[in-house]
Amino acid sequence: MKVLDLIHDANSNLWRSKLRSFLTILAIFVGSFTIILTSAINAGVNDFMDKQIANMGGDGYLEMMPTEMYESAMNMLGSNGPQEYTEDKDNTNASTYIKDEQIEKAKKIDGVKVFNVLPNSTADYVTSDKTDKRYRINLNLVVEGITFDMSNGATPNTDENADYEIAVNEDLAKALGYEDVSEIVGKTIKIAVPSNLKCYTAIKRSECQTVIEAKVSGTQAPGILSMGGSRANLALWNKINEINYKGMPAETNRSYQATADVDPDKKDDVKKALEEIGLKAVSVEDEVGMFKSFFDVILTVFNIFGGIALAAASIGIINTLFMAVQERTREIGLDKALGMSNSKVFLSFSAEAIMLGFWGSALGIAVSYVVGQLANNVASQTFTKDFPTFKLAIFEPVTMISIALIIMFIAFLAGTLPARRASKKNPIDALRYE
Questions:
Q1: 328 - beta bridge partners?
Q2: What is the separation of C-alpha 256 from the centre of its chain, rounded to a whole number of angstroms?
Q3: What's the rounded Cα separation, in Å, for the pair 163 and 142?
Q4: CB burial class (10 A; 0-12, 13-18, 19+) of residue 434?
Q5: In Å, how far are 155, 183, 237, 258 from 176, measured between CA atoms?
Q6: Spacing of C-alpha 294 from chain mean position
Q7: How far are the Cα atoms of 123, 232, 235, 261 from residue 143, in angstroms, in the given order?
Q8: 163 near 235, Cβ under 8 Å?
Q9: Taking the mean position of all CA atoms in its chain, how far away is CA 413?
Q10: What's phi and psi for 259, nearest 5 deg?
């Protein structure tokens, strides 16, 4: 029996009882739809996470600061939107910095490939011509090899001889008076930079601040790793550092942040070793971990529901084929009397079970794809609108085909019992069946 003939006969036999076969396929569809759509959402979440991790240096990238600074820094990064600046609350903490002995010990830790200490640059606030308010600013340096998504404009020029440029997040752009955040691109904003030497003796904070101007090169696309601060190019960073430490001895130009490229397989051990010498290290996975764990729990629950639906559908397949065997008993006897072997009888009923799985999974793929595209459109305009690079559901052909094949295999297993019963029927008894 040829494969195409087998498939054709299986399909023909299925639709002898249209309602029964349709209801069985519908039960398979419920399970396949749930699992396929859940897999697409999982692919979308993982794609977003992977982009964030890749942009921030990959699996082996670590950022660190003195442990005593970590909690206060996290409080600032976790605040709801830009914070207004007041002179009695500045961004500096001169009592904590990365010490020379910590740097030397960190470089010797097994698994550390590259250890970079970032020059410290601190600004008090930022403002613009479109507002009389001032906002605290958390500055990050644009580092070669570290990229981030832009919603408007471009990343700052990394040439140390370039003009002063900065990329701001969209919340800060709006706070600075640009409701349409694209309008801030190319505009100049003002940054107040403290002179540490003058601030020791100044009565008012404003007496030791120098205001410099920088061009906004673009706005960062909202993302899990772009909420915390603005990105200054090297020219602006060095200028701020120069103002911070002007007139002070070179040894006072301390660093508060460092980065490291480590062996991903030894990353956890490296983090523990860094904590032992007083440095709190954070990987990209640490920053996105809670977000991903939340989605993982939800998707696992949906997969369980999908599995339960498939289990119920398997019972439906068994019932459908048992009834088919019962109805076609005399036909089975006639086929055997004409020379059809037990294996071919078994194969014909197994093919019907596989076709039930095929049509159920095919329907699941088609409907889940349509629903997924609609969900992407709705999500992009509602709860994921703040994350324009986040596509909620991504349908990967290999994944969908794999799920369909698994469902067809489950259907085959469910159909083995009735198929075996059909193959074992005695042709004489079958021909006498009424």
A1: none
A2: 29
A3: 14
A4: exposed
A5: 19, 11, 21, 30
A6: 11
A7: 18, 9, 12, 13
A8: yes
A9: 35
A10: -130, 160
pLDDT in tens, 375-433: 889 888 887 776 777 788 899 999 899 999 999 999 898 888 888 887 777 766 666 65
Count CA atoms closer than 13 A to 189's CA, side-chain side: 35
pLDDT tier at 91, thresholds 50, 70, 90 = very low
Give the least confident one: 40-54, 87-101, 152-166, 315-329: 87-101
Q: Two tokens at 209? A: 């601040």
> Could you give the residue ranges of the DSSP H alpha helices within 328-396?
329-337, 342-381
Top pLDDT among 134 and 430 is at 134
State pLDDT tens for residues 182-218: 999 999 999 999 998 888 788 888 889 999 999 999 9
d(CA 127, CA 140): 17
What is the number of helices (H) and of strands (E) in the chain?
13, 12
pLDDT of residue 94: 45
Phi/psi at 236 (5° precision)? -70, -40
Q: How many residues would you count in the chain?
A: 434
Provide the pLDDT confidence category of residue 93 given band limits of 50, 70 and 90: very low
For 268-279, b where at least 16 C-beta lie within 10 A, e where not — what string?
A: eebbebbeebbb
Among 82, 122, 57, smallest CA distance to 287 is for 57
- What are the residue ranges of helices labelled H in 263-338? 267-276, 284-327, 329-337
Tell me the three state secondary structure of residue 337. Answer: helix
Q: Are 188 and 215 in contact (CB under 8 A)?
A: yes
231 and 166 in contact (C-beta within 8 Å)? yes
Enclosing H/E stretch for 188: strand 188-194
DSSP state of 146: -
Q: What is the DSSP string of 390-412?
A: --S----HHHHHHHHHHHHHHHH
Report yes or no: 170 and 180 within 8 Å, Cβ to Cβ.
no
Q: Determine the 3-state secondary structure of 350 from DSSP.
A: helix
The residue with tokens 């200054």 is 232
The pair of structure tokens assigned to 138 is 């958390």
Average pLDDT over residues 148-157: 84
pLDDT-derived band at 227, boundaries 50, 70, 90: very low
**Residue 434 binned pLDDT confidence (cut-offs 50, 70, 90):** low
Q: What is the sign, positive or negative, of the torsion defined by CA atoms of 264, 268, 273, 275?
A: positive
